[in-house]
Design brief:
Number of helices: 11
Distance between the termini: 60 Å
Radius of gyration: 29 Å
Shape: globular
Oligomer: single chain
Order of helices and strands: HHHHHHHHEEHEEHEEHEEEEEEEEEEEEE
Structural class: alpha+beta
Strand order of the largest sheet: 2-1-10-5-6
Length: about 525
């Protein structure tokens, strides 16, 4: 390996030390204070909507993994360049490391709830990386000098040449050993930091010991007729592990119930603060609600149905006494995310709740443990705040939430939608085929679903039972399939008698519209 390649590898090794040391220091502060976490969160907050939507449509719930991998690739390239341009008397690469540390430091201290200590992982990590880079570059300079000596002695005595070759071999071993030690040390620091951080901050053990309160009203019992149990059709209740997750948190916040509280303030008669223990004396309710992401494309899977246990928001808000001229509730997450919900939607009698349970167990950490908001009939971006810590009563003309500042609609009512789950695209045998899927119009319900084959007439599908107008509804249609290519279409009519629109619109600014379709080939 020549000096040029050694410098590139040396830069990468120094970067490993930077990131590893930062992970280790962050154990004492917060997992969100590491350079990659801080920079990644800042990227998420400032990514243009068009790019963000493309990523979500392309990668779905793996969007955060894609971001981490992309940042890793960029970090490797920058580190390699830093090593390549670094010299003993020209520390240009060290300057690049310093710039990276400064950018990460600023990103870290700019995060919600950050203190000055959040600067330490980036600061100490960058310093450690620069020290390693300087050391490796000096070793590589010695290796270059030994290589030059070999060239100068080629015309000299055989013994002198042999000695020079021995020197270059020694210098190469020293360089490679230094690189190996740096990489191993950085990796070890990173792994130890991540493990210790997880042990210190992880709340999965606490969550496993939580005992949910019994609902004051009737316990949710799903009508067996609500699930048609057709192969390929989504189950009526979505298992927690399969429930979609779209949020702005780069890593899942770890919030202990003992540290959690909900502050209700703003345009209220009295500010109140509720902790987790206080909830035990309140009346819990259990309700079925389907949540939908506004980024869900026509026929997409960013939707899920669950049984939620929690506390009615209208009761909690009534205790604070919202002012008559207030019309918005700005909810805030522990990670700084905000959502603006119409106050009327939280107080009009619908089953809007502060949820603590999901499908019979405490909220999974990825879905908001210890508490989140669930509001039937509103897209998640204006209502479904996870890890919620604040409810500010205000007005739409005085405050803007995270997504509305980025050009999305203020109110976010869910539009009627339909999805074809089965059959899948591909070649099928002629004969009777069951076409099935789900339809939704939360807080209005589904009155009918119709299916059309190619450009034929709309035909009614049979419907499963509807335990709640706040959930999706399964449907099925038996089709006598004939040979050839066909396109299946599906549309729904909501409980108010309004037929789903055929107009095609994208997700921005208030949800996609159009008919779900599926191309199949028969025969």
């Amino acid at each position: 390996m020549a000096g040029r390649e050694l410098r590139i590898v040396g830069g990468i090794a120094a970067a490993a030390v930077t990131l590893g040391v930062a992970e280790l220091v962050a154990v004492l502060i917060s997992a969100d204070s590491t350079p990659l976490q801080a920079i990644g969160s800042t990227i998420v907050d400032h990514t243009p909507d068009g790019v963000r939507e493309w990523v979500i449509q392309r990668f779905g719930t793996k969007d955060k993994l894609v971001l981490f991998v992309s940042m890793g690739v960029v970090a490797l390239i920058v580190a390699g360049v830093a090593g390549l341009v670094e010299r003993v008397r020209r520390p240009i690469g060290s300057a690049l490391f310093a710039v990276f540390g400064l950018v990460a430091l600023i990103a870290a201290v700019s995060r919600p709830h950050a203190s000055w200590t959040w600067a330490l992982p980036s600061l100490i990590g960058a310093w450690a990386g620069i020290m390693v880079l300087r050391t490796l570059i000096r070793r590589i300079a010695d290796f270059d000098a030994a290589s030059a000596a070999v060239a100068e002695t080629e015309a000299g005595t055989e013994s002198a040449a042999a000695a020079s070759i021995s020197d270059i071999a020694l210098e190469r071993r020293l360089v490679m050993r230094g690189i190996g030690i740096a990489v191993a040390s950085g990796a070890a620091a990173g792994v130890v930091g991540r493990v210790l951080g997880a042990r210190r901050h992880d709340v999965s053990g606490e969550r496993a010991e939580v005992r949910l309160p019994p609902p004051a009203g009737p316990k949710v019992e799903v009508d067996p007729a609500a699930d048609l149990r057709i192969p390929g059709l989504s189950s009526y209740l979505t298992p927690n592990n399969d429930f979609y997750r779209i949020d702005t948190a780069l890593t899942v916040p770890q919030v202990s119930k003992d540290d959690w509280s909900l502050r209700i303030h703003g345009m209220v008669d009295r500010e109140i603060r509720i902790n987790y223990a206080d909830l035990g004396s309140r009346r819990a309710v259990e309700k079925l609600v389907t949540l939908t992401c506004v980024s869900n494309p026509v026929g997409g899977d960013l939707i899920g149905n669950a049984s939620w246990l929690g506390y009615r928001l209208d009761e909690l808000l009534a205790e604070a006494g919202p002012h008559p001229d207030a019309d918005m509730v700005l909810s805030r997450s522990i990670d700084g995310f905000t959502a603006g919900s119409p106050l009327a939607a939280l107080t009009d009698g619908r089953d809007a709740m502060l949820a603590v349970g999901m499908n019979g167990e405490p909220l999974p950490t990825a879905h908001g443990y210890p508490a989140r908001l669930v509001v039937p009939g509103l897209y998640g971006y204006v209502s479904a705040t996870k890890w919620v810590t604040e409810l500010e009563i205000t007005r739409f003309d005085r405050a803007q939430a995270y997504w509305t500042r980025r050009g999305w609609s203020e109110r976010g009512p869910i539009k009627t939608g339909t999805r074809i789950d089965t059959p899948g695209s591909g070649k099928l045998a002629a004969g009777r085929i069951t076409v099935a899927g789900v339809a939704w119009a939360q807080h209005r319900g589904i009155r009918a679903v119709e299916v059309r084959v190619d450009n034929g007439d709309w035909q009614p599908a049979r419907l499963a039972a509807e335990p709640s107008i706040d959930t999706w509804r399964q449907w099925a249609f038996d089709w006598e399939a004939t040979s050839g290519p066909h396109t299946l279409w599906a549309r729904s009519t909501d409980g108010d008698g309004v037929v789903q629109t055929a107009d095609i619109a994208g997700e921005v600014p208030d949800g996609a519209t159009g008919y779900a379709s599926r191309f199949v080939r028969i025969g």
